[in-house]
UniProtKB/TrEMBL annotation:
Its EC number is 2.3.1.82. This is Aminoglycoside N(6')-acetyltransferase type 1. One of its GO terms (molecular function) is aminoglycoside 6'-N-acetyltransferase activity. It is an enzyme of class 2 (transferase). Residues 16-153 form the N-acetyltransferase domain. Keywords: Acyltransferase, Transferase. InterPro entries: Acyl_CoA_acyltransferase, Bact_Acetyltransf, GNAT_dom. It comes from Parendozoicomonas haliclonae. Pfam families: Acetyltransf_1.
Length: 153
């Protein structure tokens, strides 16, 4: 398995994987996540062409096993918040048949390397409460809670 920067040829496989995670999110939090649709691909492609983001894919023998979409942001407007850049893990998806096989860990390591090469020292992400499997994965990588997002309907 190799992890590399995605190319436009990877886009169809990325879209299939994104559909998996979107369906899972819709199943558990349908008031926030819409059903997967063709508009998802438009969103993905728009981000694919954005130079402030990166798509990294895990590939084995020509098959895309997973991907991570990450971006680097920097606070420029709020004076009491740090101006240090932060790498946000926007989306990480491992094909449901390949989970718990090391693919996600390799993707996150490559993302950390990408962030480090840009002098970014902190990775952040959000994980939904229902997704205990993902929470355990992030815990195993050393991620710690930093905030809670609360809601009321």
């Amino acid at each position: 398995m190799i992890v590399r920067k995605a190319t436009s040829d990877d886009f169809p496989a990325i879209a299939v994987l994104f559909r998996q995670i979107n369906a899972l999110h819709h199943q558990h939090v349908s008031r926030i996540f819409n059903e997967p649709s063709d508009q998802d691909q438009e969103y993905l492609f728009k981000n694919f062409e954005d130079d402030s983001r990166t798509y990294l894919v895990a590939e084995n023998e020509g098959v895309i096993l997973g991907f991570v979409l990450a971006s680097i942001t920097k606070n420029e407007t709020v004076p009491f918040l740090s101006k240090e850049p932060v790498c946000w893990i926007n989306t990480i998806v491992v094909d449901h048949q390949r989970q718990a096989s090391g693919v996600g860990k390799r993707l996150m390591e490559a993302c950390q390397d990408w962030a480090n090469s840009r002098d970014v020292k902190e990775l952040r992400l959000e994980v939904l409460e229902f997704n205990s499997k993902a929470q355990s994965f992030y815990d195993s990588l050393g991620f710690k809670p930093q905030a809670r997002v609360l809601y009321k309907v």
